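Suppose you are handed a protein chain with no further information: no name, no annotation, nothing but its sequence. What can you learn? This example shows the usual starting point.
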Amino acid sequence: MKDYKPYRGENGNEDFWERVYDVPQVNIGNANVVDPFDNRAFVNKTGGMKGKYGDLLDYSSELSDRRAALAGGEDPLKRKYFDEYKKKTNGKKHLKDMPKKIETKNATIEF
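A reasonable first move is to predict its three-dimensional structure. Written in C-alpha coordinates, the prediction is:
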Protein backbone atom coordinates (compact mmCIF):
# COMPACT_ATOMS: atom_id res chain seq x y z
CA MET A 1 0.00 0.00 0.00
CA LYS A 2 2.91 2.33 0.66
CA ASP A 3 4.69 1.54 -2.60
CA TYR A 4 4.83 4.35 -5.14
CA LYS A 5 3.51 2.97 -8.43
CA PRO A 6 2.73 5.66 -11.00
CA TYR A 7 0.56 4.70 -13.94
CA ARG A 8 2.61 4.26 -17.13
CA GLY A 9 -0.15 3.41 -19.58
CA GLU A 10 -1.23 0.05 -20.96
CA ASN A 11 2.18 -0.85 -22.42
CA GLY A 12 4.20 0.58 -19.53
CA ASN A 13 6.25 2.93 -21.73
CA GLU A 14 4.05 6.01 -21.78
CA ASP A 15 4.74 9.16 -19.80
CA PHE A 16 3.31 8.73 -16.37
CA TRP A 17 0.75 10.90 -14.72
CA GLU A 18 -0.25 11.22 -11.12
CA ARG A 19 -3.69 11.61 -9.69
CA VAL A 20 -4.27 14.98 -8.06
CA TYR A 21 -6.63 15.04 -5.13
CA ASP A 22 -8.56 18.24 -4.69
CA VAL A 23 -11.16 19.51 -2.29
CA PRO A 24 -14.63 19.03 -3.80
CA GLN A 25 -16.35 22.20 -4.90
CA VAL A 26 -19.82 22.69 -3.48
CA ASN A 27 -22.45 24.73 -5.25
CA ILE A 28 -24.40 26.59 -2.61
CA GLY A 29 -26.83 28.06 -5.09
CA ASN A 30 -27.71 31.71 -4.87
CA ALA A 31 -26.29 32.38 -1.41
CA ASN A 32 -24.49 35.51 -2.64
CA VAL A 33 -27.47 36.87 -4.55
CA VAL A 34 -29.13 39.79 -2.83
CA ASP A 35 -32.80 40.68 -3.19
CA PRO A 36 -32.67 43.87 -5.30
CA PHE A 37 -35.45 45.51 -3.27
CA ASP A 38 -33.91 44.82 0.18
CA ASN A 39 -31.73 47.75 1.23
CA ARG A 40 -30.47 46.05 4.41
CA ALA A 41 -29.19 43.07 2.43
CA PHE A 42 -27.39 45.50 0.11
CA VAL A 43 -25.74 47.27 3.06
CA ASN A 44 -24.70 43.96 4.64
CA LYS A 45 -23.32 42.61 1.36
CA THR A 46 -21.39 45.74 0.39
CA GLY A 47 -20.16 46.31 3.95
CA GLY A 48 -18.08 43.14 3.71
CA MET A 49 -16.96 43.63 0.11
CA LYS A 50 -13.33 44.19 -0.63
CA GLY A 51 -12.68 46.51 -3.52
CA LYS A 52 -13.02 50.08 -4.57
CA TYR A 53 -15.84 52.59 -4.66
CA GLY A 54 -16.35 51.86 -8.35
CA ASP A 55 -17.08 48.21 -7.52
CA LEU A 56 -19.82 49.38 -5.15
CA LEU A 57 -21.33 51.57 -7.88
CA ASP A 58 -21.17 48.71 -10.38
CA TYR A 59 -22.96 46.41 -7.94
CA SER A 60 -25.59 49.07 -7.28
CA SER A 61 -26.14 49.45 -11.02
CA GLU A 62 -26.47 45.67 -11.34
CA LEU A 63 -29.20 45.63 -8.72
CA SER A 64 -30.93 48.55 -10.44
CA ASP A 65 -30.99 46.57 -13.68
CA ARG A 66 -32.48 43.59 -11.83
CA ARG A 67 -35.16 45.80 -10.27
CA ALA A 68 -36.00 47.19 -13.70
CA ALA A 69 -36.30 43.68 -15.14
CA LEU A 70 -38.57 42.56 -12.30
CA ALA A 71 -40.73 45.69 -12.38
CA GLY A 72 -41.28 45.73 -16.13
CA GLY A 73 -38.68 48.01 -17.65
CA GLU A 74 -38.04 50.85 -15.20
CA ASP A 75 -36.45 50.75 -11.77
CA PRO A 76 -39.14 51.87 -9.29
CA LEU A 77 -36.59 53.16 -6.76
CA LYS A 78 -34.92 55.27 -9.42
CA ARG A 79 -38.30 56.61 -10.57
CA LYS A 80 -39.19 57.46 -6.96
CA TYR A 81 -35.89 59.33 -6.59
CA PHE A 82 -36.47 61.26 -9.84
CA ASP A 83 -39.99 62.23 -8.73
CA GLU A 84 -38.74 63.43 -5.34
CA TYR A 85 -35.96 65.40 -7.06
CA LYS A 86 -38.53 67.04 -9.32
CA LYS A 87 -40.65 68.10 -6.31
CA LYS A 88 -37.61 69.35 -4.41
CA THR A 89 -36.32 71.47 -7.31
CA ASN A 90 -39.70 72.98 -8.26
CA GLY A 91 -40.27 70.92 -11.39
CA LYS A 92 -36.71 70.68 -12.72
CA LYS A 93 -35.86 67.19 -13.98
CA HIS A 94 -32.79 65.27 -12.92
CA LEU A 95 -30.02 65.15 -15.53
CA LYS A 96 -30.37 61.37 -15.91
CA ASP A 97 -34.15 61.71 -16.28
CA MET A 98 -33.90 64.01 -19.31
CA PRO A 99 -34.90 62.66 -22.72
CA LYS A 100 -32.08 61.36 -24.92
CA LYS A 101 -33.44 63.15 -27.97
CA ILE A 102 -35.20 66.51 -28.37
CA GLU A 103 -36.99 67.29 -31.61
CA THR A 104 -38.43 70.62 -32.69
CA LYS A 105 -39.64 71.72 -36.09
CA ASN A 106 -36.29 73.44 -36.77
CA ALA A 107 -33.76 71.12 -35.14
CA THR A 108 -33.10 67.72 -33.61
CA ILE A 109 -30.73 67.35 -30.67
CA GLU A 110 -29.38 63.96 -29.55
CA PHE A 111 -27.45 63.48 -26.34
